[in-house]
Amino acid sequence: MLQVKNLVKNYGSVMVLKGINFSIGAGTVFGFLGPNGAGKSTTMNVLTGLIDFQDGQVLIDGLDLRKNKDALRQRIGYLPENPVYYGYMNAPEYLRMIGDLSCYPQKEISKRIDELLELVQLTDVTRRRIGKYSRGMKQRLGLAVALFNHPQYLFLDEPTSALDPQGRMDMLNLVEQLKNLEITVFLSTHILADVERVCDRVSILHQGEIRLTEDMNELRQKFIQPIFDLEVTGQLDAILTKFSGLDWVQDVKVEDSQLSVYVSDPEMAKYKLPEVIADFNLGLVSYKIRQITLEDIFVRMVKI
User: Fold this and answer.
1) C-beta atoms surrounding 222 within 10 Å
2) Is-contact 190 21, C-beta < 8 A?
């Protein structure tokens, strides 16, 4: 288990992490969400031992990261957002270099390289120079590098952010396969659909503070109520004031002529929403009910 307790990180006078807390169970895929500048990369750099922090505690399998940094790094794999390679090498050459640098048993390096190239689906391009790889191929090679020493904890920093749809699918399929290897995955991303697909648990970070940490199933149950999307014509100021005074309306988001109404009582909303629109002489262009998504929850948590 990985535990983060009251973690504080400052850069000069700027407090980037403001006493954050969360925990990650062994063998789970943990999604770490937040808008740009929220502190996601800083958190990942702290947890992987790349930078120090001012206050708090990080425990990995009960061991304090500060006191056991060298030993714990052996349990950690890390894929940065933009991995850098020697472009003149091919994948087996590069992985052999990683094995040599990490003091992997020499007799087992070739076998490990073959295992990893098969896992990340690069066996067909072993002779191609890395400099000729696509972005998706480079990300998959980066995953092989991060996995070389059989880490128990794998940190992925925006692994799909610049990939095409096929590349994203390939990477997410690999993340799902890691569950079978009982590797704990920390996935930092801003792509909410990726989190919904592969993560067991999620935290939302905003302005250096944790706004939410939940198991995905519990999160869906907590925010299970549907959203009413209304497109209307006319002035919206008065109706927004009206909505704020209704106890069955939890929140309202406005974008141009589109109202997204979050409610606590869907049955009442089905009957009352059209009545409220009519009372204010607004034209109702369209009306639909949809299930809440992680994106909706994210927007509410960070108040974008």
Assistant:
1) 13
2) no
